[in-house]
Amino acid sequence: MTVSKTAEKFSEKPADAAKGRKDAGEPQTEALQLGELSEQLGYVLKRAQLKVFENFLRCMSSLQLTPAQFSVLLLVEKNPGRNQTEIASTLGILRPNFVAMLDNLESRDLCARIRSTNDRRSHILVLTDKGKAVLARAKKLVATKHEARLNDLLGQSNREALLTMLAKIANEF
Amino acid sequence: MTVSKTAEKFSEKPADAAKGRKDAGEPQTEALQLGELSEQLGYVLKRAQLKVFENFLRCMSSLQLTPAQFSVLLLVEKNPGRNQTEIASTLGILRPNFVAMLDNLESRDLCARIRSTNDRRSHILVLTDKGKAVLARAKKLVATKHEARLNDLLGQSNREALLTMLAKIANEF
DNA sequence: TATTGTTATACTCTATAACTATA
DNA sequence: TATAGTTATAGAGTATAACAATA
């Protein structure tokens, strides 16, 4: 099984270097200094992203949806009638890599490929009824478990400010 | 060549779906709606992280340092005399995966493994003179090209607020 | 000739088990 | 017995080239 493995993936936690020490002789077991590293935006950004994805996977474990799969379902729901190239490209997924992803979602009866009548090369993407139901449940889980926890941690206004700045980086950097 | 390839890696840009369309018949070529996706912190976080790493690689192309390699050099400089397990663990790198990374840095004469006299199982890590010089140049490039551009985009105080919130997520989420 | 979906393939990252040499 | 470094390996994620069907 491929998806359940994913949920176990982010196990290696940082800053645990000083744990498994034999404090027999001289207990020189001091935590390392991060120094300038904690000021590097890229470093902190990556760490935060891993934490957020890790929490997302935990919240979604009952539905077995990864962040990437969730984003595909959201985008197909919002843009019915688009083909694989359009959906994949919008998400920054390369067309060849999108095939296996769709195979997975389609095999679970969450979405379907429909040969376009206008252009018989294209596969139009739609959510199945089950796909719509699962996505609805996923949205609720994300809102009540995942995003809610972020609100608790940062506060509503800070969370919005964070989103604004990240979007600015993603779009203009 | 392994490192130069890395600099070419982040080519797939999102939201370009509507480019290669044949606007002959009905130009129904409309950009897709991101919808709720643009409110998902995980999605925006990931996109921003990719952009920041991409820019980092460009700024560092003359030194051929990846974000991960830069973080190792920074941490070894700040914590001389620590062994591989401690450095790797602090960075969230698994010990087996750290071996090839160190092989690379050592083959480029940027750092060195020294067998510890206290515990002959351990390899103490230190920067070579060349490693110190390269790191100094890397810091300057990061400050003047990379972080400076983030300051231009966000403003100094916003950039600090962003860093604070991301650190909070990385440490407490 | 160009584009859509697809296959094959390769490279990087990340993860686990097991070996060796030391302790 | 346990730990540090290492090897081997496997799985995701991401990248490119090329093919068949269709335009």
Overview of this protein structure:
2 copies of one chain form a homodimer. By secondary structure, chain A is mostly helical. Chain A is built from 7 helices and 2 strands. Chain A has a two-stranded antiparallel ribbon. In chain A, strand 1 (111-115) and strand 2 (123-127) form a beta hairpin. In chain A, helix 2 (41-59) crosses helix 6. The two termini of chain A are 38 Å apart. The interface between A and B is large, with 70 and 70 residues. Chain A binds a DNA duplex (23 and 23 nucleotides) through helix 5. Chains A, B: GO terms for molecular function: DNA binding; DNA-binding transcription factor activity. Chains A, B: Residues 1-28 are annotated as: Disordered.
CATH topology of the domain at 52-172 in chain A: Arc Repressor Mutant, subunit A
Return the CATH architecture of the domain at 52-172 in chain A: Orthogonal Bundle
User: Strand fraction band of chain A?
Assistant: 5-15%
N- and C-termini, Cα separation of chain A:
38 Å
Helix share bin of chain A: 55-70%
Oligomeric organization of the protein chains: homodimer
Strand order of the largest sheet of chain A: 1-2
Rg over C-alpha atoms of chain A, rounded to the nearest angstrom:
21 Å
